[in-house]
């Protein structure tokens, strides 16, 4: 018996629609997070509300439209995150351990997801931020949101947070399987595999974020697993935002340079994203493809993220079980009446 434990998956979040108001609401919440933009709010908020959110929602909304899940009228990030939670739930159904998903920004909120678990009598929550590489801008703020919710609860559940897992064998196994499956399905062989991670301002790394070394750990383990080396499996960083220096090398200039130097066939994997989203489907799948082709490339393939692949669900199950298996020191009664 696991004493009423529940599992909470947390991903970034995404707008409810592609219209200006929906995208603006989402970006406003996201870019007001001081874990994401570490600036004096008296200076940043007028720039954000007056300049950034005056133009960016239209532009982003058009990009979201290109990748939107029309069938369900929702963002792909939500579709895949929900699918991961549902498949993981089936792995824990026999033990009656519920699995829910919450988004750091937007819907379903972390607060609503925690409510679903406590309504089912959960006294313990295993929190699994869906980021293999730690960053304060993602992992820490996901956990912050859990603790903010707990701050308002008279009867708190006990909480364990799953640490980042940049080279956990079950993660590397899932990546290896997805790359081999994707490349095996092509009738051409890429000259090079580019592994593109979401970028981060260099300043954050200097201040102590371990994101870059965790990306390097992932790529080292993946190279070993795929029997590739530094020359045919490159690490790059995408999605720069704002004027500051971000982690390098940048994905797009690297790929354009490769094409200009005569490279013709390229595959891109995005190991930092567990679910396909605007950054993978549009920035890489659409924009980077165009840039590569315009620079002389001939074949381009963006490898789908792990999404709800069986190996990805195996990974989530392994990570969650590690936290569930060890019982807490004290089991508290679920309610006053049970005491
Ligand atoms: C200062 C800005 C940003 C930091 C720092 C940042 C870090 C960061 N983000 C992810 C994962 C995702 N980001 C996504 C979208 C996205 N990211 C930023 C900015 C920063 N990210 C913006 C403005 C956006 C919105 C999209 C746009 O307007 O172009 C997404 C996808 C969301 C979706 O709806 O599909 C993900 C996932 C990581 C892992 C990370 C730090 C390492
Ligand atoms: Fe981002
Ligand atoms: Fe982007």
Which second-level CATH architecture of the largest domain applies? 3-Layer(aba) Sandwich
For the residues shown, what is the average pLDDT? 96
- Could you give the order of the helices and strands? EHHHEHEHEHEHHEHEHEH
- How many beta-strand elements? 8
Task: Give an overview of the whole structure.
- Helix 1 packs across helix 2, helix 6 (169-184) crosses helix 8 and helix 6 (169-184) packs antiparallel against helix 11.
- The chain has two domains: 5-166 and 311-325, Rossmann fold (3-Layer(aba) Sandwich), CATH 3.40.50.1400; 169-302, 3-Layer(aba) Sandwich (Rossmann fold).
- It is 48% helix and 14% strand.
- It is built from eleven helices and eight strands.
- With 339 residues, it is of the alpha/beta class.
- It has helices at residues 20-31, 41-67, 76-92, 110-119, 136-151, 169-184, 202-206, 211-226, 251-260, 278-294, 310-325; strands at 5-13, 99-105, 124-129, 158-161, 192-198, 233-238, 265-269, 299-302.
- The chain has a four-stranded parallel sheet with strand order 2-1-3-4, sandwiched between helices.
- The longest helix is centred in the N-terminal third of the chain and has 27 residues, at 41-67.
- The structure holds the ligand C=CC1=C(C)c2cc3[nH]c(cc4nc(cc5[nH]c(cc1n2)c(C)c5CCC(=O)O)C(CCC(=O)O)=C4C)c(C)c3C=C and fe (ii) ion (FE2) (2 copies).
- One fe (ii) ion (FE2) binds next to helix 10.
- Fe(2+) binds at residues 198, 279.
- It catalyses: heme b + 2 H(+) = protoporphyrin IX + Fe(2+); Fe-coproporphyrin III + 2 H(+) = coproporphyrin III + Fe(2+).
- Belongs to the ferrochelatase family.
